[in-house]
Amino acid sequence: KEMLSLPCGREGLDSMLDRLGVxxxxxLTWRCADCRVPDLRDAFSMTDNIxxxxxxARQLAELSEEDVIKLKxxxxxxxxxxxxxxxxxxxxxxxxGMMDCRSPEELAQYTLxxxxxxxxxxxxxxxxxxKSYAQAxxxxxxxxxxxxxxxxxxxxxxxxxxxxxxxxxxxGGMEMV
Length: 177
What we know:
The chain is mostly helical. It is about 50% helix and about 5% strand. The protein contains 9 helices and 3 strands; from the N terminus they run H-H-H-H-H-E-H-H-H-E-E-H. The chain has a 3-stranded antiparallel beta sheet. Strand 2 and strand 3 form a beta hairpin. Helix 6 (about 105-115) crosses helix 8.
């Protein structure tokens, strides 16, 4: 059992083959132990091309922290099983924004802050069904609440088209928070 941190240079890949005493990566299997985007661990483990995995790891390493959070949210909303499905999402991160609201209560409070005083918000939140209110706000805006925050499209369009939502529901992939 050997550990190889990706991304690495060609020398690192060659050195690993030498340490293992094998002539090529096709004779090996690997498992991703840690990933900047945890939901991609299985996708990295399932790929059979170490050069592709290394390139993908390099792309992830170059992302800003803000973009990593957006990517984590996108992958929660659009679960992907393969790197080939997940990596193209990185080319569209500028189309999305992320608000630091991780629960219906946080979202309800955030949306009310622009119009009400702190005292009014506190009073209203005691009587408001935050979950229903947050779901209405999410539905109206086309956003998606993820464990990483509220994911929305910068152009105001829904994050998921209706057919994508239906497909997610049928597969049981959508997770309501």
